[in-house]
Amino acid sequence: INALPARQTFADWQVAVFGSTSDPNAAAEFDFDDDGASNYLEWLTGTDAQSSTSAWLVGVTTAAETVHIEFEKAADRGFEVQFKASLDPAEAWQLLDVPSNQRSFGSADAPVVVTDTLSGLPSRLYRVRVFAQ
Q1: Using an 8 Å Cβ cutoff, are 30 and 39 in contact?
Q2: Which residues are CB-contacts of 68 (< 8 A; sequence separation ≥ 6)?
Q3: Buried residues in 83-112 as b, exposed as e (16+ CB within 10 A)
Q4: Total Cβ atoms within 10 A of residue 115
Q5: What are phi and psi of 99, to 5 degrees?
Q6: Would you tell me how many other CB atoms lie within 10 Å of the CB of residue 117?
Q7: What is the pLDDT along the chain (133 residues), one digit of tens a residue?
Q8: What is the separation of C-alpha 123 from the centre of its chain, rounded to a whole number of angstroms?
Q9: How many CB atoms lie within 10 A of CB 131?
Q10: Sign of the torsion angle spanned by Cα atoms 14, 20, 22, 23
Q11: Could you say which DSSP state residue 98 is in?
Q12: pTM
């Protein structure tokens, strides 16, 4: 059995993209290309931190009482759709508990559609949490 190559660590990525882990442009929370995504998110999603046209996108479509949250799942990364009912900062985000929103780390990039049925519920806010293993 052939093992998959190890994914580059964030520190290795900083050196490859910015030449150093200590360069202020390489900081995890910095958005070097000013596209709205931090360097850490760019690393997690495999987008180009030096190009504002390279972006990881989340799409939302609705039909009647069904909501489809669509995004590209990057290999070896975890993705989970979360929701809450209001913008109240005191309200916690919750995991959307539906079969299409299973926590898993795939071996290849793949499109994902997570479906939620509102069925009389009030509207919801959604976000996608991305994380490393």
Answers
A1: yes
A2: 60, 61, 62, 113, 114, 115
A3: beeeeeeeeeeeebeeeebeeeeeeeeeeb
A4: 15
A5: -55, -35
A6: 11
A7: 444 445 789 999 999 999 999 999 999 999 999 999 999 999 999 999 999 999 999 999 998 889 999 999 999 999 999 999 999 999 999 999 999 998 888 889 999 999 999 888 778 999 999 999 8
A8: 22
A9: 11
A10: negative
A11: S
A12: 0.85
Indicate the helix (H) or strand (E) that contains 29: none
| Residue that is written with structure tokens 């660590």 in the block | 9
At 28, list the tokens.
Answer: 């995890």
- As given in the structure block, the two tokens for residue 130 are 């991305």
Q: 8-21 in b/e burial notation, b at 16+ Cβ within 10 A?
A: eebeebbbebbeee
Q: Amino acid identity of 46? A: G
63: its two tokens = 């039909």
